[in-house]
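Why does residue order matter? Because the sequence determines the fold. Keep that principle in mind as you read this record.
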Amino acid sequence: MVKSLLLKREKALIHEWITRFMDFSDIIAYASGSDVAPSEQDQNKYSGFRHWFIQNEAAFLPLWWKYLEGKNLESGGTTGNDFDSDGEESAAFINNPFGNYYHPKTLVQTFVHLGLQKPNVSWESCDDRAGDMRTVLIGVLGIAVEFYQWALGMTRPVD
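Structure:
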C-alpha cells in the first residue's frame, strides 16, 4: 500500500510539534523529580508550550489520525498498542497521546491529572511515582519519533 505524501508544511508542522514536545517533556520530567514545586519560570515555559500546542492542535491532529489509520491498515485492524480500545481514556490517549500533558492549564494541574500530586495539597515530592510516569512519557516520545519517521517516509521502526 502506498501512503499519501505529506505536503512540506505538514512535514514542517510534525517536525516542530515533535521537537517542541521533546523539549516540553523535559520540563515535566525534571519537575516530577523535584522536592520543590515548579517555579514561575517552569510554569511560564509550560504555558508557552501549552499555548503553542493548543493553537496548532487542529492542524496537527488530522495528520496524527492519518498516521494511525495507516498503522491500523498495516496491522490488519489492530492499533498495536496495549490499551483497551473500549475504554474512554484509552481512546482519548490513542486519538492524542500528547494531550494528557498539555491540556491541563498549569504544570501542577498536569501532575494532578497524571496522578503524581493530590489536588488542593501543597507540593509533595513525587519521585517514587515519577519513575512510572517517566516510563510512559518515554513511550510517548518513542511514538512521536516513529510518527516523525513516518512523516518523512522512513519505514524502519524505532528500536
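The radius of gyration is 17 Å.
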